Request: fold
Amino acid sequence: MTDDVRHFKLLQELGRGAAGVIHLALDVEHDELVAVKHLSESAVSRHRNAVARFMREVRILSRLEHPNLVRIVHCGRSKGRPFFAMEYVEGQTLNQVLAKKPLELRPGLKVVEQLASALDYIHQHGIVHRDVKPSNILLDKKLVPRLADFGLAHDKGEVDMQLTASGTAVGTLRYCSPEQCAGDSHKVDGRADIYALGLILATCLTRRFPKCPESMQDLRGRFDREFRSTMNRMLIPEDVISLCHRAMRYDADKRYKTAGKMAKEIRACLRSLGPSQRLAHASSMDDDDLDITDSRSDYE
Reply:
């Protein structure tokens, strides 16, 4: 890829994942900064469906518009490989923020409420993200979140192109729902994203990053085992604890039916907070014990 893709001048690499590389770039035509994602050569050589998956992400992002989703501004090809440009969010990923400290109660709830609203929007458009995790959430300087990376998203409106082999777990294991871990990727619906969002809320408030499950049994009773005692010690309100627990239920039928209902309950929690209510103390987990890795265990 050259340093100038159409009217985009690449400035520096921002990050890379299983399928693509993202650069900060200058849109010379409009004189504004954007983030350019292009399909990497290694992804093309490793995965026979890499181009089809990348183009699926372009199609999905092109038809979505929500204040808490990254916005695509241009797509094209360079040296035979596809790329797209999206708005540049100046700030950090949620993963980077949590590596330093947990979010306070009210800001944490507000961040997750906005993400729940965004998920409700994409679910209504037939999209399941399937990889909701802190490194795919961009926070600007005002802590307004934007959900990014739709590389593993499933579009129920598209003809099944068999991009995922049956029995394959899709997503990032430590944030995957039980049904994703079981390999039922084509049967996964929006409740899998709700599971991940409940996990993220618990992580935001406690700074306890979830353990990577080694078996399906590790997912049973996960909330009680990994989060409940810490949340009780931090004097997190019981309605917030119950909200996280419900979102993370092993059985999808026992979770919130929609992300919109989860967002509504978060708003109720926010209304019940006192004007200056804060967490009692941060998690007892030492920095040396933190494992914030949330890279994908498998690329679909």
Notes: The longest strand covers residues 8-16. The chain has nine helices and eleven strands.
